[in-house]
Amino acid sequence: MDEHLLVALYFKMEKQIVIFRDLGKMDYQSAWDYQEKLLKENVGRKSAVGSPETKVETEHFLLFVEHPPVYTLGKSGNKENVLLSEDELKEKEIQFFNTNRGGDITFHGPDQLVGYPLLDLEKFYTDIGRYLRNLEEVIILTLEEYGIKGERSSGETGVWIETAIPGKERKICAIGVRCSRWITMHGFAFNVNTDLSYFNHIIPCGIVNKQVTSLEKELGYTADIAEVKEKVKGNFEKVFNAVLRSEVLL
Predict the structure, then answer these.
(1) Which sign does the torsion angle of CA 46, 49, 53, 54 carry?
(2) Residue 99's pLDDT is what?
(3) Cα–Cα distances in Å, from 56 out to 48, 118, 223, 230?
(4) DSSP string covering the chain, please?
(5) Whole-model pTM above 0.85?
(6) Which domains does the chain have, with CATH numbers?
(7) Beta bridge partner(s), residue 17
(8) Which of 12, 69, 87, 89 has the fewest CB atoms within 10 Å distance of its CB?
């Protein structure tokens, strides 16, 4: 049997160890820089020349973070989907970043769970579409634990509710990623107790005439974000056939 096929089969059978770090509250630029650092280190490991015995293996990470108010625009996004001027952004103390992820405009802010998986997909599967569907599945399974039916919307990445009812479609989780040498970065933004008024100043994900919602709004009460994190972590392990190993960022 081909050596590469044997390696692929081995990784499919074995649970992957994913290092989990909760970054707490961190500004967007610092979190982005940290992701880029981890990505560069992993790409370097892949590029290193050496025997299998001396080569350093890539590592997987899952980062949780909560950002101060910020709008981020994907590389194929349209700046016109931001409905505020630069002066108005400053006045409202909302940052703005052009990013290198996929997708269009979205919002990150307090009481939103942002997850950044940095996975070497060559140890899982080399299929970006499948990876995006699996990120959606993590959130769909989490919503199910709260009695909410999360759904996919054809042609629109992310997790939605009531997609079949015109006028009631609403997005609860945005997803946008980047992949370099099959190593991922960026990820998902799950509205837990998020102040949804921030979405009034953008056309979320560039999709008109559709609403944005939060777990709090759907439940009718404030969700315990620590509990939500644990549920997301458990479902991440299940969907990705992985084991999370918690570490503190020094």
Answers:
(1) negative
(2) 93
(3) 8, 17, 41, 30
(4) --HHHHHHHHHHHSPEEEEEEEEEE--HHHHHHHHHHHHHHHHHHHH--S-TTTPPPP-EEEEEEEPSSEEEE-TT--GGGB-S-HHHHHHTT-EEEE-SSSSSEEEE-TTEEEEEEE-BGGGT-S-HHHHHHHHHHHHHHHHHTTT---EEETTEEEEEE-TTSTTT-EEEEEEEEEEETTEEEEEEEEESS--GGGGGGB-GGG-TT-EE--HHHHHTS---HHHHHHHHHHHHHHHHTEEEEE----
(5) yes
(6) 3-47+55-246 (3.30.930.10)
(7) 243
(8) 87
Q: For residue 137, how many other CB atoms are within 10 A of its CB?
A: 18
Q: What percent of the chain has pLDDT over 70?
A: 89
CA distance linking residue 225 with residue 227, whole number of Å: 5
Q: At what angle do helices 225-240 and 128-144 cross, to 10 degrees?
A: 140
Which positions are annotated as active-site residues?
A: 205
| Structural tokens at position 127 | 């299929």
State mean pLDDT over 91-102. 92
Please provide the average confidence, as pLDDT, over all residues in the chain: 90
d(CA 190, CA 178): 18
- Measured in residues, the chain has a length of 250
